[in-house]
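Anyone have tokens for Phosphoglycerate kinase? Sequence:
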Amino acid sequence: MPAFNTLDDLSADSRVLVRLDLNSPIEDGTPQDNRRFERHAETVRELAEAGHRVVLLAHQGRPGRDDFTSLGGHAEILADRVGRDVGFVADTYGDEALEAIDALDAGEILLLENTRMCDDELPEASPEEKAETEFVRTLAPLFDAYVNDAYSAAHRKHASLVGFPLVLPAYAGRVMETEYEANTAIATREFDGPVTMVVGGTKATDVIGVMDALDDRVDRFLLGGVAGELFLRAAGHPVGRDVGEMDLFDEQWERNRELIESVLDERGDAIRLASDLAYEGPDGERAEVPVDDIGEKETGYLDVGTTTVADYEPAIRESDAVFVKGALGVFEDERFADGTVGVLDAIAETDCFSVVGGGDTSRAIEMYGLSEADFSHVSIAGGAYIRALTGEPLPAVETLEAAAERRRD
Ligand SMILES: Nc1ncnc2c1ncn2[C@@H]1O[C@H](COP(=O)(O)OP(=O)(O)O)[C@@H](O)[C@H]1O
Ligand SMILES: O=C(OP(=O)(O)O)[C@H](O)COP(=O)(O)O
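Reply: yep, here.
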């Protein structure tokens, strides 16, 4: 059992500062509804119905990426899911935010602006350093309690995650509680047969570190997405070209090159790479090319190819457990969903133990008409859940545990 306080321990009529994880896919500047809203709505509704004054903190995207946006649209989706008004102020701890917080009545809900727009939120530092930031020092005195519901961001040492619980009585929200329990139980589970991990998505830096750490627990890695292309690059193929403004490939390649090469060297037998890739053809259609025929780095690839999917499917069928972290392609665009959906379909058809993680990836289940019931656990966490699998501590959970300890003393 976790050693943290929960909403059951919260005093009545509190002014509560709540950290959610509403980080979502963004299309044309607009956040797309996903399971994070639905799940966090339970915690927010419970707090508002109990008569607390509820102020919400959340982040969206990363500075420099095109998913780095304001949270105005998130407030609207959340209000819909909670079934109550959710006010929004485009400020984190300036006068506008302080006035809006002060004006709240019992049972009212207010979302503050993207925490990552405030300089104190990033970069990562110890809870002690983060507690000293102006962001934390300004907001904390306005509240009686801090609730962390953002399990899926608990692997980050940012001010809103580790700073506030050091200076306020701190509690876990309902999502934090249930995700913690599910993912910790999975981490200690033993399997008799082969264990497979499907690795994709855009956060290659996160998954490559975990592949290294999961060395003895995973028998087979099936790669796609950005991480997959970086491994192909290490294997000598000229792939991994950024499409548009985003720098997904080169920066992560520079940062992880040595680790990728050493993982490939040491675990080469366990790592399956795509044998073909899909891209946007001249008339906007899906086109495919065998990896061995790619001579120059001039195309941005957006999915693994059909032969790769056919190669990955039997590997999944033979597995006793399959863990998915990250999509194999840009599944939001139907033309490039074959890799992700093919793999999810294969998992859904077998009775292996399966976990699908990641705010974006879990959304593919709903988008393509798959049933959540066909998977053992669908986590709204990605990076946090794979870290939990390795047994690596989550700093924000540790800070909540330390806060509970202090309270008991
Ligand atoms: N080759 C690719 N190029 C660019 N984006 C990709 C590629 N393959 C997958 N993606 C994107 O990865 C996203 C999921 O990435 P990530 O955030 O790492 O996973 P999650 O949120 O599911 O943990 C999807 O939204 C998908 O569009
Ligand atoms: O969406 C998140 O992580 P995930 O994509 O690994 O599930 C979290 O909000 C953390 O975001 P970050 O990886 O930009 O720090």
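The longest strand covers residues 15-19.
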